[in-house]
Specification:
heterodimer; A: little secondary structure; Ribosomal Protein L9, domain 1; three-stranded antiparallel beta sheet; 3 strands; disordered N terminus; B: mainly alpha; Heme Oxygenase, Chain A; 2 domains; 15 helices; globular
Chain lengths: 105, 334
Amino acid sequence: MNAEDADAAAADGFVVLARPADATGPRDAGAPPARRPEPAQVVACPDGPLLVRGDVEIVGPDGEVLPRDRRTVALCRCGTSSIKPWCDGTHKAIGFRTGPEPAPR
Amino acid sequence: MPAPRGPFTAALVACLADGSGAAHLVEAARRAVAATDDVVRDEDVQLGLFVLYELHHGGVAGVDDDREWDVDLLGARAVLEEAFEAALRERVTVPARPEPTAEGVAAALAELTHEDGPPRLAAFVARKATLDQVRELLVQRSIYTLKEADPHSWGIPRLSGRAKAALVEIQSDEYGAGRPQRMHSAIFARTVRAAGLDDAYGAYLDDVPAVTLASTNTMTMFGLHRRLRGAVVGHLAAFEMTSSIPNRFYGDGFRRLGFDEDATWYFDEHVEADAVHEQIAARDLAGGLVEGDPATLDDVLFGAAACLAVDGWAGEHLLEAWTAGHSSLRERTR
């Protein structure tokens, strides 16, 4: 079962148990595991949000894991989004600039 | 089968309906193109292109699927496309060429798509549009949105590497990431039904004017030609980069008119989704394509500028009609 099928099954009310990629049982040598763990990747978009991919939980101030409806999400970096912590594109309207990184002291 | 809007579509519909040969349609297409002074707004040309493109998508009811590869229909399509592409290239202002790097392309697209405030149509819908007017907006949008993302998917096998992965990442989200009920076209259908409208694909084809068909035809033409792979990529990038803010305003308009959360889901979804997609589209898709294949740069810029121009014309059509106090839809001819 790939990740999309798992999501579809979950959406249909099935409980999908994640298991480590090395616990998928015997298989042909060299065959990929059914689901490789996907390390988290955060892309700092110039003048824009932080794009987040991979296995990472985004947790709200009350400690609850925020429901994530898509595999790749954009986190607000300019502070003006109306749907924080997600980006809603407002950084463009306010002319948000990330600028060059400060020089090391 | 749609109602014909001139000699070309009359001949086209007749030959599709009875399965007869289409050799005469090439000449009919030439006459249609010669007879108009504005191919973008010509009802006969744009409906003709739209119907011919449908043979490659969901098909046309009652028409043999083999007609997709009828060489005479393809020949007629090529005549219409040549005139349409030439008109777009003549009228669309393409920005200056940036450095052929991902960052250079992303910056050029950001500048091209920058707007000081929401587009006029989105602002009007948020503040003033009546129930009849937002229903009309859904009718106009249904032509593309009930098959949302399909025209750009033609680009996938024409790309490779970083650009291909980026396009698939965006399209997967458009198609619900494996969950059919989350496909953007399916979410839009809920809004259409909430407004008491018919969500069957093409239900309102006879009601929409040429300029609306031209919007969809532009992306399909770009998608169906490998030669125009830069343009389909640029088109999608500009589309995604000008989507999240207007959709917030559309959602506000529907909420103001009393539509519930289920009905505004489509707009709310696009505020969030397209804020993600635009980052991927500008840098990884458009930028990645140009870095790997620098010859596509000019068409990436052309495709982006064409998206803004054609969709701008379609939006202005609605505002002009509403400002003048009448409907933006065509009177049914049958």
